User: What shape does this take?
Amino acid sequence: MKQGLLTFLTIFVFCLNATAQQKFMYQGKTLTTGMSVYLVDPSRTPIEIEHVYNNVNDAIKSAQNRKIRELGTIDIYITPNVYWIDDPDDPSTRKSSTKSMPAVGMKVNLSKVRLIGLSADPHNVVLASNRGNGFGANKNFCMFYWIGEDVTAENITFGNYCSTDLVYQLKPELSRKRRTNTNVQASIGIAKGDRFYFKNCRFIGRAHMSPFVGAYRTLYENCEMECSENGLNSMAVYENCKISLYSNKPLHSTISSGVVFLNCTFYAVMREQYITRSGGSVVMVDCHWDNISIKPTYRWALKPITDQRNYIFNVTGNDNKNIEWQKEDPWFTIDMTGKKILSAFKNPNGTYNVYNLISGDDGWNPQMKNYLAVHHEPSMIVASQRNITIESEVDEYTLTTHQYYYGNNEKPENPYKVTWCVDNKEKAKLVSLRPNEDGSKCVVKGISTDDQPHTVIVTARTSSGLETACRVNLIPKQLPPPAIIGTPSIIQNGSELNLLYALKMDDNLRDMSVIDWYRCRRDANGNPDTTKWYKIRCSRKEPLKNYNITEEDNGCYIMATIATKHQRCEANENIVKVVTQSPISCDEKMLSLSTDFSDIPGTTQPDIAAGLWTFTINKPEDTNEYKWAFEKKDDDVYSYEYGIDGAADIIGFNQAHRGARMMYTPMDGKYSEMDVTMEVAPCKNAGQGFSGTSMQYMDVYIKFDPATQTGYGLRIMRTKRFNSAVDFQLMHFSNGTAVELDAPVSATGFRTGCTISLKIKGKLFTASVTNNTAGDPQDKGLPINAELSATIKPNKFGGFGIQHTGTVANGSCIIRNLKIDWK
Assistant: This one.
């Protein structure tokens, strides 16, 4: 009975469609709407039963609700027009439903569908949105989140016009100005699934443009793209595409399977052009770069990884000559000319071997090309480890390799024999390599006998031209930690304490002992209390044998701890403690503080006391709208390390966690004047300072009381108004609540080389931000430097601090040095 009813309903639906269909033309053919043919046409009256719709959203929703799945692929034909997937006139803010996902315009769960524009020119069929991070959305906004398989689009423009204008020539009245001039994160599509194919499409956006990224296999054919940072799909094949780049890092990483560009043309505006931020494999065959710079440089990655290899063939630049990629690191580039590996990407007849790259195990062939004569060739070789550390003369490590077809598709057997070597002849003497018969495995052993650590790059190559590598960190054969001879002691030499000790070890070994200095706390009456000690200085490279006495130490015992070490051992677990025989006496008033933070410990230390640094993770109240997780409280709050990106090769204090806060409480007293000068190096190199506009800022405190969170400061915050500038604003803090003292000043100098100077004298609070080394700003018309002033109510405080609410890593800021003067 149920089966008969289902059959009747199915026949009934087909009959309705047979009597209520609409006809239209495509490529000279007459098509009729029906169960598998939808039409989107704003000029027609939408009739659900006829599968005619006047907007794309309704057509997609109807396809999702289709009950009879055995009909196969649905074709959704779209007439020329601008279709807003998300209402641009809705004033409400789009919000993300989860921490890891952006705000989404339309979530789609649909497979076996083709979106086809009814015009050979993709400019004429536009699917649009115009929201981005901080502009219509509370974080990054994505027009589509599409879950499915076998998704095809043809003759369509997909655009997020948050940061770029929508210009529609067919009907200029449908054009729309960008929502903001700021280059914010505004995406087009996230894909979850497999077999996404785009032909003759355009993808228009800027930062994080994302042309349906995330699918296992994606092919772009004859497409145009406009994007800036992190805008492209890193797991895709691009054939005959035109790509306009408005930043120097269009991909974050291609580590998963690599990205392939075949016969693509790139239009670039950056003199120093990278492909990825964090490395991974990139393949370019028959590609050309047009760059507006006269002498551009091309590098694969801002942070290349050891095993990264990039494959090129016939890649030319402005002068139509072959580009020299990453000149300083030539081993990252493999020229495929004359190598078998080229056949993985290009056939002998000059066509491109797309089928070899995307066919996988199911024979996916969206281009419907004859693949019977296609040559199947692996396109990547991967070592089991990128980095290993072994003890010379002791450890052995077995490295393995796997040869993959594109998309991490591994066959049961490696088709090519692998050879192993160390290209550097001197470094080759430090290790022995024992490969098995086919080279798929190799045993690595360190054989150096000296006292120094070494780094050796071990390379694996196939006869076809594939290559990978592993960084082998050799540490010398380990010995026991040295013993201390006699009893160590601390002596005072004027205003300096000297730690005296001797080690029992060979003359060829170097003292690398870890020495930390501690100060005991004071009790309520100001007397020394040795039941608790504060770490006040630490060794980082060389043993810190000397300590300068200041008023901070007056009346306190000082302790040094020694963990003995040399270059052939780890630090001794048995720590020796040495304490001064009596409390320190220092009556000289401390009127200045100067440090480069090289010996300041940045570990969590929540106590607030005179002469003490306080380090905590703190989330200010004005960031409550934006959720971010607290980190472990026992980790470093600040780390002394090198920066990255714009702060590469700059060492200093770096925020280890979001919300990092450090404060200094001066000795008890009344302070009438205070000067603060510090040099900083933000990791963002364009001048925007932080990774987002979600209340990401850095406050620099002056005349501040850490105990009550009251005083003054300079706020440096990423602005929504400009791409490559920050806002500087003077602030008053009362019990942790921030109030603006003046209007913000936008400037572009918050880059490496920036000096921040704050001064409070009487009722006058001034701030000067200068940068004499920064190049021309990207935001033309804005000043590099900033000068601010405000009239304030004086206080007696003398504390200092920095509160950073930005994301860390490439959004952090290196604090290079600090000088404070008090009166």
The domain at 591-823 is CATH 2.60.120.560 (Jelly Rolls). Confidence is low (pLDDT under 50) at residues 1-19. The first strand starts at residue 23 and ends at 26.
